[in-house]
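The material for today's practical consists of a large collection of protein records. Read left to right, the backbone structure tokens trace the chain's path through space. An example says more than a description, so a record of this kind follows:
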Amino acid sequence: MRIIKGFLIVVAGFFTLITLISLLIPSTVVTVKSVSIHASQEKILAAVKDLQQWKNWHPVFQQQVNDLSITEPSNAINAKASWLQNGNPTDITITGMSEQGIRFNVNQEGQKPVSTFLSVLPMQEPNTFQVEWRAVTKLRWYPWEKFGGIFVSEMTGPGYEQALNSLKKYIENN
């Protein structure tokens, strides 16, 4: 009985220590990826602001041809694209538009929404714009989520880079 009691005290102490350390980890993870594109701002914004146009450049939209449904109008606030990803319903909902870009939420069943911004910013070189993909992930206080949050950028960043490179290729070749 004494050994079991000692073991339980060590396990409880370890769990408490891990929880306290996780409280020091920020609960917001921001992932930023960007690419420079040589084209007019209007052309880039047309491809970014219209979810129907995403079929031409976004890898997920190109893969989900049969399962993808997009509401009409597809270039307005509350426009939505829905599909199944790994068996889970996933959707993108446009929440805002500005002269520089678009704001949308990525929602997947069982997860918190990811607030995302795609902005088109001028660069010093003429007719060149930087397209920036900024994803803001909010984490709950759970220790396993906080420690997992350390790897969010490494897990999602390559997908954002692939989408931006595909956008660049599409815009510059058409």
The mean pLDDT is 89. The CA atoms of residues 13 and 170 lie 55 Å apart.
